[in-house]
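[job 0412] stage=complex_fold ligand=S-adenosylmethionine status=START
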Amino acid sequence: MVERKYIVTLAYGALSEAELESYFTLSNLNFKVVGKVGRCCILKGENLSSDFWLGLGGLHKVAEVFAEVKEDEVHKLNLDELIASAKDKMKWAVSTYSESEASALKFSEDLQGCIKEALKSKGVVKTKLLRGKIHKVDSGWEYEVSSQLIQGERVVEEGFEAVAVKLKDWLIGKSIAVVDHIGYRERDLGRPVQDPTITMPPKLARILVNLTACSKGETLLDPFCGLGTILGEAIIRGLDIVGVDAKSSRVEGARKNLTWLLKKYGIRSKVELFQGYAENLSRILKGRLVDGVATEPILLPPLKHPPTDEEAKRMLERSSRIYCRSLPSISKHLKPKGRLAIVLPCVKTKSRRILSFDISREASKAGLRLYSMDSVKKYPLLVGDPSQMVMRGVYIFEKVGG
Ligand SMILES: C[S@@+](CC[C@H](N)C(=O)[O-])C[C@H]1O[C@@H](n2cnc3c(N)ncnc32)[C@H](O)[C@@H]1O
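[job 0412] stage=complex_fold status=DONE, emitting structure tokens
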């Protein structure tokens, strides 16, 4: 097996790492994280296509490493592979990631200079360099051309992007995949029935589906399906789906959205939707077991002011009831070793604490245990920007037995 290194820019931090681990395990692929800088993760594994990477919801871009150089030896780089198909009018870009602002900036300038020279000696002089922006993300600095711009300008297909990350030396890669922002946006804002007060972004829905580690042809259940965002991402991954919601208007909305998706992508998955209650799934599923469950029972409304700890606790206590009531029924219909990826509301209070509630006792009573993964240091895996007062916390459980 030929080993490759990949530079992967993650969009959701620890949650994206958990998704990666699930996704690789599901595909029976070995991979190792050999370094991290800010939100960049360097992976070592076998040769993987861009389509493989596009199955993930939690990344921005992926570059395949083709060289490693010391800081002051950028002029020694062989850029033949990077510029192999360069032609006039093409757009190209450079993004660099380092622990220091100065080195991210300097290396981007040095690398751009070398690429310009190489293009010139190839006789390609009328190209357009897309400019990036320098910013601090997590513990690292990035001089980055955004993945939105890379996708919008068709840089991977018609030009190239060089991505460099500083570990001990600089690793240089060529971008091979960027997340399909356009597709995700279309599925969010182009679907027939929309309601941003209850739905989640399709990228997050894709992550939850991947966290269940269900494979093609298996069945995923969302017992609080709303307008079917999670179910939509599941059918795109080739899964069959069962959706349940207490409100018949939501079930009808989900039906319209999923019918639209099936047609749009020419998908042949089996879709079953029911009005019903997550606490009483037996009425719908009888004795049937599903392979995985992904769901968000409660999405708290955005808050105008940060609540006190007491106010947040009251709000969360009300929300916790539906979780505790539905876990036994969800677990009953999950196959042994099947996974449940579930979102809990988290609230940031006036005192800057992030509060949520604990469902591990109820989960354990229902035969579910927290799923342990190398990449998950602690639960919940938080989603949301630190300025938000309402955030999401993701947990992954596994059904005991089997
Ligand atoms: C936060 S929304 C889920 C949204 C969904 N993830 C999406 O993106 O479309 C929660 C849904 O749970 C439904 N619900 C509330 N209580 C329920 C229950 N006991 N059983 C089933 N569904 C319930 C609500 O009607 C609502 O549509």
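The chain has two domains: 3-179, 182-399.
[job 0412] exit 0
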